[in-house]
Design a protein that fits this description.
Blueprint (H helix, E strand, L loop, with lengths): L2 E6 L4 H14 L4 E4 L2 H12 L9 E3 L4 H6 L2 E4 L2 H4 L7 E4 L13 E5 L4 H16 L3 E6 H9 L1
Parallel strand pairs: 1-6, 1-7, 2-4, 2-5, 3-4, 5-6
Length: 150
């Protein structure tokens, strides 16, 4: 069964995604990121700007095979091709719509910012995943910040 993890209230979505990718790859996971081309470019830049000790190997699905084989994160705007990559353990969706055909996907992560537009599209994806019978987990980042401040 597919597990979907929603991370709500990410104050700065792209830096949070970078930390999440660093954590996942630090655990030995290989992550596929689905995003539009502009977001893929911004994500790549953000990952390159991490501290040297936090480096996350990454590349585009369009890069040569030897880079794909040695990258912990592979990003693409083409879900059909990205979802066929057998070396990927986890997927991260950065689009407003849910990916089509999630058969064979064990785990999908959604990161949702505080903007109402982002929350509204996340609600639609949540409903879609629930209708498909997926296991859904909710992580409210605002509650984590409040607990740390207390």
């Amino acid at each position: 069964m597919t597990q979907v993890d929603f991370h709500f209230n990410a104050p700065e979505k792209l830096p949070y995604v970078c930390r999440l990718l660093r954590k996942a790859t630090g655990q030995g996971r290989k992550v596929g990121v689905l995003a539009d081309q502009d977001t893929c470019h911004l994500l790549s830049q953000a990952l390159w700007n991490l501290n040297a000790t936090d480096f996350v190997s990454h590349c585009s699905l369009r890069d040569p095979a030897h880079l794909l084989a040695h990258s912990s994160v592979i990003y693409s705007s083409d879900w059909a091709l990205l979802s066929q990559q057998s070396q990927l353990d986890v997927y991260l969706n950065m689009n407003d719509l849910a990916p089509e055909n999630l058969s064979g996907v064990n785990r999908l992560i959604e990161v949702v910012g505080p903007e109402e537009r982002d929350k509204a599209s996340a609600r639609q994806r949540w409903k879609q995943y629930a209708q498909l019978g997926f296991q859904i987990n909710r992580f409210d980042l605002a509650a984590v910040v409040q607990n740390q401040a207390a």
